[in-house]
Each structure stands twice: as C-alpha cells, then as structure tokens.
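Query structure, 119 tokens:
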C-alpha cells in the first residue's frame, strides 16, 4: 500500500506548468467548493461529502474518477489546502494510476497566486 511519502507534491507554479504541458487537474473538493471557483478545465470528483454528521468519504470516488480519467493520464490533484488531495493521491496510486501529482496548498494557493480561475 502506498503511503503519503510516495505522493509527489508540487507548488502552484509547477502545477501550472504541468497543466500547460497536458496534465489534467482533478479537483477533489465538494461540488459547493468547486462551484465557488475552480482551476480552468478542472475535472470535479469530490473525495468527501458534507453531511449532517460532518465530512464523509465518497464511497464511489475511484469508480467516478475512472469514468473521467484514464489510469495512464498525468493528473494534478488538488483540494482546498491539500489534505484531501493527499488522501486522494494515495487512493489513486493504490488503484493503479501512475502519474499522480498533488498540488500543495490546493485551490487556496492557486487563487492567492493570481492564477486563472473559473467562477
């Protein structure tokens, strides 16, 4: 089983370069967070849902990702600040995705760095 230390983390500037060279951005925040603003051309698959009991893991996360992303694709994974993206990357690596990179700082860092966003 892969551990978090196996996850490659890059900053926003490196992530932007990866996206410019053909990687896809996988946004693992909730639909509400995504709808409030997201990285251009991002694919949205929530890793967790907000419920009355708090956040719960999306039981269909991997099947939903497999519908929109191929295992051989290069993916940049981001959430709001980085925690969910780390867990999502570990799950993706364990499921056979080989080129998974976590964007450190998440969407918060992306927006603060004045990168292009979709609102």
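Result returned for the query:
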């Amino acid at each position: 089983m892969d551990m978090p230390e196996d996850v490659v983390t890059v900053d926003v500037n490196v992530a932007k370069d990866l996206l410019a060279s053909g990687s896809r951005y996988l946004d693992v925040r909730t639909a509400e967070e995504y709808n409030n603003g997201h990285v251009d051309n991002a694919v949205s698959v929530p890793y967790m849902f907000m419920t009355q009991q708090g956040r719960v893991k999306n039981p269909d996360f991997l099947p939903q990702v497999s519908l929109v992303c191929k295992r051989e694709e290069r993916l940049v994974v981001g959430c709001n600040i980085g925690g969910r993206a780390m867990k999502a990357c570990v799950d993706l690596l364990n499921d056979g995705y080989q080129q998974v990179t976590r964007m450190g700082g998440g969407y918060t860092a992306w927006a603060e760095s004045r990168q292009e966003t979709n609102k």
